[in-house]
Structures are given as C-alpha cells and as structure tokens.
Amino acid sequence: MSVLTIADLPSGRVADSRALVRVDFNVPLDSQSRVTNDTRIVQALPTLIHLLERGGALVVTSHLGRPKGEPDPALSLRPVAEHLAGLLDFPVHFSEELVGPAAREAVEELAGGELLLLENTRFHPGETKNDPELSLALAAYGDFYVNDAFGSAHRAHSSTVGVAEQIREKGGEAVAGFLMEKELRYLGMALEDPTPPFVALLGGAKISGKIDVIRSLLPKVDRLLVGGAMANTFFRALGLETGDSLVEEDRVDLARGVLQEAGEKILLPVDCVVAPEIADAVDTREVARDEVGPGDRIGDIGRGSRDLFAQVLEGARTVLWNGPMGVFEMSPFAGGTLALAQAVARVTEKGGITIIGGGDSVAAAEMAGVADRLSHVSTGGGASLEFLSGAVLPGVAALQSRKGGAS
Ligand code: ADP
Ligand code: MG
Prior knowledge:
2 domains; single chain; 14 helices; six-stranded parallel β-sheet; Rossmann fold; alpha/beta; binds magnesium ion; 36% helix; binds adenosine-5'-diphosphate
C-alpha cells in the first residue's frame, strides 16, 4: 500500500500550522536515564527537521517501554527530550502531561519552528485501548498528523490509529513521515516487486514466530536459506538427531509441511557448530548435520553451510535477512552470523537491494559492522515481521493512501 507522505502536503501547509507527529523514541536508557543508543531518534530527524524548517510547530508523541497505563518515572521521555535538544538546532520543550490543562497550555504556547515532546503515551491507560477520548484529545493538538513510527504501526493504539482517524474527521491530513515511507518502500518492494534472484535468509530462535513470514515469502523467493535454532526444528522434520538443541517439538509437523511445499527452494544448513552447552567459553566441534550426538547442542551453522549460503547470496539481486544464524551473542557461536553479514553486505556493494529486519538481526549487523552497508535496516522488529507476513498494519491503514485519498 502506498501512502501519502509529508512531501505530498500542499506547499505552505506546514508554515503556521501545528503538526502532531508520532515517532518511535522507544530507545534504551541506562540506570542514570541516559540514552545509550539514539538510532531511533536520529532516524526520525529528517522528518522533524523537514517540518521545523518549514515553520511548523511540532507536537511530538512516542511510547517508551511498557508502563502499565500509569506513570513510571523510569520510563519518562524527559531524558529523550534532552537528548533530542542536543541533536536539533530548534527549541525543544517537554510536557510532563500527555493530555490535560498543562499539556494544552504548552501546545498553545508553541511557536512555529519549535518542538514539544509530550510524556510517554503509555502512561495513559487509554493508549493501548485506542480509547476514542484520548484520540480526540490528541487530535486537538494538530492541524494535521504525521506518523513516522513504523515500529509501532502494527498496534492499533490511540496515538497511532485513533488520532489519525480523528484528525481526518476534522479535515486534516494524516500522512507518513520519511522513515515510515522508507520502511514501506523497501519492505513493500520485497513483497511486491523484488528484483530476482530474490533470496531470503531466515534464522533466529523460533519457527513459531515466523511461520507466517515463511509462508508469505515462499511463493516470492527464489531461494530460502534457513539457519539459527529454527533450522533445528527442520532437522527434526528430516528425522535427524538434534541432541539437546533448542527444538520446537510442537512445530516439527509444521516444518515438515514447509519442506514439502518449498521443495528445492529451501536450503538448510549442512553442518553445525555444537557444544555440550551454549556458553561463552566452551569447546566446540563442527559436525555434519547427520553427526550431531545425543548430548550436543547446536549453537551455530558450520563452515560448509556458511560457504553454501554465501554462494547462493553471491548471485542474489534482492536479499531479505531476518534472524541470526546462531547464538551470535556468544563468541563461540557468532561465526556463522558474522560471515553471512559480510556476504549480505557484498550484495549491496554489487548493486543489489539488501534489507534486514528484526531486533536481534539488526544488533548482529551492527556487531558485524555492516549496518551501513545494507540498503535498508528496518527499525520495526514486530512490525516488519507482521508486514512481511502480508498483514495490513493498522497504523498504515489509518493514513491516507496515494490512490483516491481514502484508505
Ligand atoms: P530477530 O530479533 O532478529 O527477529 P529472533 O528474536 O527470532 O531474531 O532470534 C534471535 C535469537 O535467536 C538470538 O538471541 C540468538 O541467540 C537465538 N538463536 C539463534 N540460533 C540459535 C541456536 N542455534 N540455539 C539457540 N538460540 C539461537
Ligand atoms: Mg528478537
């Protein structure tokens, strides 16, 4: 689905208007409430700067963490506002209220070219219920609405869905920010119009969380490479011994079905790195996949699999990567993930499109030093998985679509 963006707003629309902007400032904080990774804030800057430079007064909302519908000082957005102030050449204010008289006053006092960050949307019990009253109160803050929080688009909350509907109700626009647009463009391309050969590299902990993605990608990919603990469940479907490895017993039949459906398209690891336990300092062995012993735990794909997968990737023009190949957080089991991170980055360098999604996968790409050598690093963990499984994200559906104006 193609949605309108802030670039489609009529010229002059932003100046002297108030924009309600939903961003994803759900960033990690340390015990002193300092922002330890500001990637998500930095990625929202193009949208914020575009609007501020055009004289818009920006009322900005976000959630942070999972407070239970009530204030939790450890999850206040105040330190995020301070961090943001250091990144912008425009005045940044903070409101301790999301809705209420003080918040309203702060909104009314806001001048063009200034930004007001409101307190954590999830301090309000109405947020996760998409409460109409909260949506209406938020909608009063903006002449138009901008959603740049792709990572929250799979949730129908007040600040992502209800407010968009309310603002459209009163004649205002509801459009995507640049980050949201980029996410939809890249992930949409993978689903709708991938340049072949299209190779998906899937891994991570579980099949269960990703079965819908596998099903949706299967008809579209030329090759599906599977690593990580996910591969163990497929091994079992082939009748192989997996020792004490992580296996989803109740998904073995499902895996068997996928193998049948996928035929030649799917490639499983041919060998594995095993150890008596998954720990930071253990002696590992590399064995063929039919040589895993009863007490073994599979922690990574082996060298033969890395070479095989890298060879398939070498011919790819579009790559979608979700899920690490092993327990990359521990050095004895990081080799497969790091090697394939390089193989994916080489595809970008040869002019291919490379897309990575998933919280742990992105962390692995950063660890491998390839994050800036990929075409697109998705900020939305759960949202990108839902999108790739073919679901319409409620936060996207609430925006104006390019064709016809109504979604
Ligand atoms: P993402 O967040 O990128 O979607 P997942 O959350 O699905 O990825 O999976 C990531 C986790 O999978 C990592 O914490 C990693 O340690 C784990 N994992 C990968 N391979 C194995 C394995 N062979 N055994 C146990 N855990 C694994
Ligand atoms: Mg994860």
